[in-house]
Amino acid sequence: MKFSFAKLLQAPSIILLLLWMIVPLSMTLYFSFMRYNLLYPERTGFDGLLNYNFFLTDPALYDSIVNSLTLVGSIIVISVVFGLSIALLLQNAFRGRGIVRVMLISPFFIMPTVNALLWKNMFMNPVYGLFAFISGIFGWPVIDWMADFPLLSIIIMLSWQWTPFALLIFMTSLQSMDKEQVEAAEIEGAGFWSKFYYLTLPHLSRAIAVVVMIQAIFHLSIFAEIFVTTGGGPGYMSTNTTFLIFSQALLQFDVGVASAGGVFAIVVANIIAFFLIKTVAKGMAK
């Protein structure tokens, strides 16, 4: 009786969660097979696989996939390398370490749109940005970051925001490291790199795998930073698959093609997530 009553109490939340997931997915699948353009709402009907064909043959798709992979790979590498380096530096006790930790972690809690506006206006603006000011002091040519290096600009601002996440995970993991092993290695005369390669890296392998998995899943859906800063341009230089789908839906008003792109993105994201989760699970089992 208690078991069935517990199930009854859980049912509303489970049903709501299923509806929250299934209804949007079902609508996306439905519209991906329909001819539906917001500019011509009267021209509707079953379109078969034409929406998928149009999306998969879009010249911008290849660029968007390359940009997506570049964004994900670059941000993960930068955040893991810098996060691990800073975490190792913070292992040594010093005055004010607690305040330094809080300050280093705080960028992760800034909203994506605020982060994008901060970098766009305060740092990378070619007229009154900090980088332009520094270039003027040294007589260097001023760089219009959003126009000349749009993808690199987005990588920089996202790496700045996500490095604290990696730092937090690594600092937490390092707290559980066996101090006796480290002391024994030091007595045997092991240097910094020997301790790092044979003790620290194996200990952090699970933490690194978790950071890579979570960031890969999140970075596949980057949108706010691109929308606020470069708008996917110039051309398709900073357009990823998420922004391409948005462009099809709300800039070209083609709901059918955008829905087909959404289904494509869901399939790709689930394939990547499946292999990442399997990799992390194998690491956890060791």
Textual characterization of the structure:
This protein is mostly helical and 286 residues long. The protein contains 13 helices and 2 strands, in the order αββαααααααααααα. The protein has helices at residues 2-32, 50-56, 59-89, 97-105, 112-123, 130-138, 145-148, 150-175, 179-187, 192-219, 224-228, 241-251, 255-285; strands at 34-37, 40-46. Strands 1-2 form a two-stranded antiparallel ribbon. A hairpin with a 2-residue loop joins β1 (34-37) and β2 (40-46). It is globular and about 80 Å long.
SSE layout:
Elements: H1 2-32, E1 34-37, E2 40-46, H2 50-56, H3 59-89, H4 97-105, H5 112-123, H6 130-138, H7 145-148, H8 150-175, H9 179-187, H10 192-219, H11 224-228, H12 241-251, H13 255-285
Antiparallel strand pairs: 1-2
Task: Give the key terms.
286 residues; mainly alpha; MetI-like fold
State the shape.
globular
Main sheet properties: 2 strands, antiparallel
Helix content: over 70%
CATH class: Mainly Alpha
Radius of gyration: 24 Å
Q: What is the overall pLDDT average? A: 86
Kindly, what is the distance between the CA atoms of the first and last residues, rounded to a whole number of angstroms? 40 Å
Counted beta strands:
2
Low-confidence stretches: none
CATH topology: MetI-like fold
Number of domains: 1
The H-level CATH homologous superfamily, spelled out, is MetI-like
Relative strand content: under 5%
